[in-house]
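Audit log entry. Action: structure prediction of a protein-small molecule complex. Ligand: S-adenosylmethionine. The ligand was supplied as SMILES and no pocket hint was given, so placement is left entirely to the predictor. Protonation state taken as written. Sequence taken verbatim from the request; no trimming, no tag removal. Recorded inputs:
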Amino acid sequence: MASLRVPEMGTDSTAPLLYWLIRTLRPQRVLEVGMGYTSPFLAKALQDNKKAYEAERALLGRPSSAEVQPLAHGEYYDAPYEPRLVCIDRMTDPTSSAPRSLAVMEELGVAGVCQIIEGDLRGSSGRVRDCVGLVDFAWIDTWNTLDFVREYWDLIDPAGGVLAVHYLMTYPEGRAVIRYLESMRGRENGRLEITNLREPHRFAQNSTTLIRRTRDYVEPEDLRPCGSSNDPTGVLDID
Ligand SMILES: C[S@@+](CC[C@H](N)C(=O)[O-])C[C@H]1O[C@@H](n2cnc3c(N)ncnc32)[C@H](O)[C@@H]1O
């Protein structure tokens, strides 16, 4: 993967961050716009999720599983985990490692989850919809964030879908995009979570903004078995 790293793109910390976000959130339908160093991290995270899912599922119901997976949520494993990664890049930027990223994914044996749309993101949302339907996790690393948000917003799952955007915080046009995203709260009945993560040691390519759509998200019931409450506030212990 190191051969794809372009220092000026500033994704050396972001790529592992994306890997671990995907390992943690376990999305199945992932979209990347702006390929390169980050692409194999996304594909590998999805493939590692699938391996983990299968190993965990095989353990469920065995006597030993309580030791190995003491927190396993049985219903999660009722649905299959079939991850897909759709990547869009117009492949015309001579400084980008995007055109080489597929070969690296093939070398790593993770290209199977990936489908590439070579072209401009503008006008490609229909093809993305055809490939995966709604998107659970999107990562965008181009200058066209506003175009992306306008065309692709409805493709981000309103029940918890996450959009991660590179480098918006520290220049006026980027901050305007953040304000635009914040203004989307109205459309979302106020239910939109936005977190800006800043890398303070850099003057550019130095942030990732995470947006989570929660308009249609339903809080899960208390999933813990009765009697296992751990309530540091003591509120639940009052009769
Ligand atoms: C900043 S680089 C991506 C860096 C990559 N994520 C990495 O970690 O190395 C931006 C990429 O977006 C692509 N790109 C820029 N504008 C685009 C657009 N409007 N549609 C499709 N691809 C675009 C470029 O071809 C380039 O490969």
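Audit: result stored. The two ends are 57 Å apart (CA to CA). The chain has a mean pLDDT of 93.
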